[in-house]
Structures are given as C-alpha cells and as structure tokens.
Amino acid sequence: MTTIPIIVVTMISMVGISFMIAGLAIIVKQIQAFLQIFQFVLMGLVFVPLTVAPLLAFAPFVKGVNMVRTVMIEDLTLTQLPLSDYGVLLLNSLIYLILGLTVFHACEKIAMKKGLLGQY
User: What's the burial of 81, exposed, middle or buried (CB within 10 Å: 0-12/13-18/19+)?
Assistant: First the structure.
C-alpha cells in the first residue's frame, strides 16, 4: 500500500511524456523506430540509482522509481520518507505534464497548418 501513492504521482510524468510522443507521432507518422530506441533510454534512466547520478532526479519518473526502490528495500512507510522527496516528485510530475501538454498542443497546431490530420 505504501508504493501506490508514489506510483500514481509518478504516472503523471509518464502521461506528460506520452503527450510529447503523441504530438511527435501526429507530425512524423512513422515513429516506431524512435519508440524502440527511446524505450532503452528510459530503461537506462530507471536502472541508475540517484545516489550515483543525483541530477537524474530532474528526468521524468526517475525520482518516483527511486522512491519506490527505497521503500521496497528499506521497508519504509510513507511517513518515513522526507517531505522534500514528495515535493520534488510532485513538482517533477507536474512540470512534465504541463510540458507534455504544451508540446502536444504545439505539434497539433503544426499538423493542422500542414494539413496532416486529414478529415479531422
């Protein structure tokens, strides 16, 4: 039960990244190769602990995965984690969500201007 709130907040940044990729897919159309490469990049980000590379806390959903890892390994509860971790996680998730929505909206405008959306 401890990991569920952390995972839910972490998923917000995943939704933001998904909006960015969807915006790119509207314009480029053939995006499968990019997604396969991007999948390995994201796996690499997730596997590196923040103690080794603390600047990765600003990458999408790395902080949330690190918090879940800490909770699972050290058997912590939600109240035992520092409030600063929650603040960084929430801020990171909201920034990536807003950035994702902004990028999607910009890509949508470009696609409409170029006539890439067809009948829509």
Answer: middle
Chain segment 3-42, per-residue pLDDT in tens:
899 999 999 999 999 999 999 988 888 888 888 888 898 8
89-98 pLDDT per residue, tens: 999 999 999 9
Look up residue 38 and give its two tokens: 């991007």
* Alpha-carbon separation of residue 80 from 65, 70, 85 (angstroms): 17, 11, 11
Helix (H) or strand (E) holding 96: helix 83-114
As a whole number of angstroms, the distance between CA 66 and CA 102 comes to 27
Instruction: Evaluate if pTM is beyond 0.90.
Output: no
Distance in angstroms (rounded) separating the CA atoms of residues 119 and 82: 51
